[in-house]
Design goal:
The protein is of the alpha+beta class. The chain contains one helix and two strands; from the N terminus they run E-E-H. The protein has a domain of 43 residues.
């Protein structure tokens, strides 16, 4: 891309983070405070995995949509 050839890597290392999987949460998938107009979501809301982050964000988007449609009615 910049006209220079890539060099061979000198070091390749992997680190497994043993604490990456949080235990399943007994709380909500999302946190919403309608009075302060704040919302939060993330993998930590469900069980600490990438899919959980997506599912939490999807649930939050549904809750925000529902709240917005409710204010229009």
């Amino acid at each position: 891309i910049i006209g220079e050839q890539a060099k061979q890597p000198q070091l390749v290392a992997l680190k497994k983070w043993h604490f990456a999987n949080a235990p399943k949460s007994e709380l909500e998938e999302v946190f919403i405070d309608t009075h302060q107009q704040l919302a939060s979501c993330g993998d930590w809301c469900i069980n600490g995995r990438v899919e959980s982050a997506f599912m939490s964000a999807l649930q939050l988007s549904k809750e925000i949509r529902k709240a917005l449609l409710h204010t229009i009615d």
